[in-house]
Amino acid sequence: MTTPKTPVADPGTASQDSGHIVSGDPAAANPAAVSPAAARFAAAYPVRPVPAPGPVDTAPIATTPAALQELDGLWKAVAHETRTRGNDIHLPISLAFAERLCRAYPEADAGLVRVATLLHDTGWAHVDESRIISEGFAGDWRKAAIRFEHEKQGCDVARRVLPGLGYSEEFIERVCEIIDGHDTRPVAQSLEDALMRDADRLWRFDQAGIALASSWFKMDPATYTDRLTAEIVPELITQAAHDMAAADLNRSTALLKTAVIR
Question: pTM for the full model?
């Protein structure tokens, strides 16, 4: 899939669909919600989807898992947090996509993207688990209070575990700037933020992501993959993510026979 390149729209004219950004564009949000950082990002990367200067790998994600041993200590430090809401599936797959995206965008701080991706949903382990599905995946779920809660809790996890692993205070705060708002903030504030957001979405296009996430939304696979096409693809910020999503969606829908089983 080659997505047409479009310049970032004016904040006052970009369209929205049920609160979802439909242009993949930082300026598509309410102008009042656009931070100076988001404005700088939009100015630095004025074309959407953001073209990829590096190689784009669209092979099945299982062929290139993230194998960074330097992150093993961090994985072990948050093992408890990976046991909630399927994070032991979601986070490793998202990190593998983050690795690919960092190769496609070598100007990004790959270390920041990796750590933010690994930690971004650890906060789900520290909220009321009985509310996760009922509130976090129903109705206008992006505005659900529990989503804000899990972001704040994820920052608390980062601030708790990262100092002991040798990460600087400045780096930790940059991680938290990405985690805090990754679901609820309508815009990306940096290239690293954009890559983490895209990685967080790309895992859903793999068959493992479809199997798990469709159950959260109480959808069959066909309905869920329709939703991916209609709602999630337009949110992807980078061209590399668009290409990866298209390849995975084609493979997954063929494997799951969603054209027939619906």
Answer: 0.85
